[in-house]
From TrEMBL:
GO cellular component, one term: plasma membrane
Keywords (A to Z) from UniProt: Cell membrane, Membrane, Transmembrane, Transmembrane helix
Mode of membrane association: Multi-pass membrane protein
Entry's transmembrane regions: 44-68, 74-92, 104-123, 129-146, 158-176, 239-258, 265-286, 292-309, 316-336, 348-369
Protein name, UniProt field: Urea transporter
UniProt-annotated location(s): Cell membrane
C-alpha cells in the first residue's frame, strides 16, 4: 500500500510545478525528428514563463495568451523571438538542459516583447516590415550577448538574469532613435502624453493601450490607493509589455499554476514597489497606477525565493530586495530619462544579484537552491534535509551539503 501511494505521488509530482515528465519525455527525442516541433514549442513556452521564473510550458501558454489579449504584435514578436532563440541556441551549442528549460531563449523574448510594445512610441518608427527585420537582427545579436555574458559571469556562480535583455534593448532603442535623428529627451509628437505632462520619461509609454494614462487628471494631488493596488496587479502584465487588467490576470494565472507560493511573493513585491513608487513620485501618479513601479520589485521578490531556500531569512531578504529594486528605480529613473530610455529591468537585476551574492559566501545566512524546481518543492526538500540531519550524528551531518552548486 505504501509503495502504491508513493508511485501515485510521484506521478502527480511529474505534472505540477516545472512538469519534469514533459522534460524527461522530450529530452530523449532527437531534434532531427518529428519531435522537433514539440521540443521547440516546449522551449519557447518555458522561456516565456522563465522570464519570471515560472519554468512550465503551461505557465508559458497562459502568459502567451495574455500577450495576445493585450497586444497582438507583442504575441507575434514573442513567437518570432522564441523561434530565432531556439535556432541560435543550437548553433551556439547551448547545453541541452538550458535550451529545454528556455533559459537561453528568454532574453530574446523580452527584447522582442518590449521593443514592439514600447520602442515605436519613443523612436517614431512604425511596426512595419522594416521594423520586424531590424528586430530579427537584434534577436540574433541578443543570442550572442546572452552566451557571452553568461560565460563572463560563470566564475561568480551567479546568473546573468535579464542583463542581456537590458543591453540589447538599449542598443536597439538608441540605434532606432539615432536613425530618426533624435537625441536626448526629444520624442516624436505622437509619443507625447499631454502638453502639460510630457517630461521625456521613457517609461510612460508602457500604458495599457486604452488611454489610461492620457485620461488622468493633472490637477489630482492625492494618491488613489485603490489604483495603487490595481497597479500592483498590472505590474505582472508590464513584465511582458502588456499592461491591461485582463492580460495581467492571465499572466498571474500562469504564475499561479507553476507555484502559488511564488505568485504570493510576486504580489507582495508588486505591492511594495507600487507603494514606494507612490511615495517617491509626484501627481498624477500615472506610472504607479499603470504598474510601472511594481514589476521590478515583483520580479525581485519572486526571484529571491526561487533561487534561495524559503526560510524566514530569505523571506525578509525578498522584502528587502523588493524595496531595494524600487529605490534603485527611483534613483536611476532620472539618468535613464535623460536618454529617453526606459529603466527596463535594470533595478531588478541590481537588487536581485546583490541579494543572491550573499548566498555565495562561506557559512551563508541565505541558502542557495542547487537543483531548482519550484518553491514548494524546495521547501519539501529543505525540511527533508533537516529531518535527515536530526537523525544523524554531528560528524555525518557535516557530510551532507544542502546546496552543491549555483546551477
Amino acid at each position: 500500500m505504501n509503495n502504491r501511494r508513493h508511485e501515485q505521488a510521484a506521478w502527480w509530482a511529474g505534472w505540477v510545478g516545472h512538469m519534469p515528465r514533459v522534460t524527461s519525455l522530450l529530452q530523449e527525442r532527437s531534434w532531427l525528428s518529428p519531435w522537433m516541433l514539440p521540443k521547440t514549442a516546449n522551449s519557447i513556452l518555458r522561456a516565456i514563463g522563465i522570464v519570471a521564473f515560472a519554468n512550465s510550458p503551461l505557465s508559458g501558454l497562459f502568459i502567451l495568451a495574455g500577450m495576445f489579449v493585450g497586444n497582438l504584435n507583442v504575441g507575434w514578436a514573442c513567437l518570432l523571438a522564441g523561434v530565432i532563440g531556439v535556432i541560435f541556441a543550437k548553433l551556439l551549442n547551448q547545453p541541452e538542459d538550458l535550451l529545454g528549460d528556455g533559459v537561453v531563449v528568454f532574453n530574446g523574448i523580452l527584447v522582442a516583447c518590449i521593443s514592439v510594445a514600447v520602442f515605436p512610441s519613443l523612436s517614431g518608427h512604425q511596426v512595419d516590415v522594416a521594423f520586424w527585420g531590424v528586430l530579427a537582427v537584434m534577436l540574433v545579436v541578443t543570442a550572442y550577448i546572452d552566451k557571452g555574458l553568461n560565460a563572463l559571469m560563470a566564475p561568480s556562480k551567479l546568473p546573468a538574469l535579464s542583463i542581456p535583455f537590458n543591453i540589447a534593448a538599449a542598443l536597439l532603442l538608441l540605434s532606432l532613435r539615432g536613425s530618426a535623428g533624435m537625441t536626448g529627451t526629444h520624442t516624436p509628437e505622437e509619443a507625447s502624453i499631454s502638453s502639460e505632462d510630457s517630461e521625456g520619461n521613457g517609461t510612460l509609454i508602457l500604458s495599457d493601450g486604452n488611454g489610461t494614462l492620457t485620461e488622468l487628471d493633472g490637477n489630482v494631488t492625492e494618491v488613489d490607493w485603490l489604483k495603487v493596488m490595481e497597479g500592483s496587479v498590472l505590474a505582472a502584465g508590464q513584465i511582458y509589455g502588456v499592461g491591461t487588467i485582463d492580460s495581467s490576470i492571465l499572466v498571474l494565472l500562469g504564475f499561479l499554476v507553476f507555484s502559488p507560493l511564488l505568485t504570493t511573493f510576486f504580489l507582495l513585491g508588486g505591492i511594495i514597489g507600487s507603494v514606494l513608487g507612490a511615495v517617491v513620485s509626484v501627481a498624477p501618479y500615472g506610472e504607479v497606477y499603470a504598474g510601472l513601479w511594481g514589476y521590478n520589485a515583483m520580479l525581485t521578490a519572486g526571484g529571491i525565493v526561487y533561487f534561495l531556500h524559503v526560510t524566514p531569512s530569505s523571506t525578509l531578504a525578498a522584502v528587502v530586495g523588493a524595496t531595494l529594486a524600487a529605490l534603485t528605480q527611483a534613483a536611476s529613473l532620472h539618468v535613464f530619462s535623460a536618454m529617453t530610455v526606459p529603466v527596463l529591468s535594470y533595478p531588478f537585476n541590481v537588487a536581485t544579484l546583490l541579494i543572491l551574492a550573499i548566498s555565495t559566501v562561506p557559512n551563508p545566512p541565505l541558502l542557495w537552491v542547487g537543483n531548482k524546481t519550484f518553491p514548494e518543492h524546495h521547501i519539501y526538500l529543505y525540511l527533508k534535509h533537516l529531518g535527515r540531519k536530526d537523525s544523524l550524528g554531528p560528524t555525518e551531518n557535516q557530510e551532507i551539503p544542502l546546496s552543491i552548486s549555483n546551477k
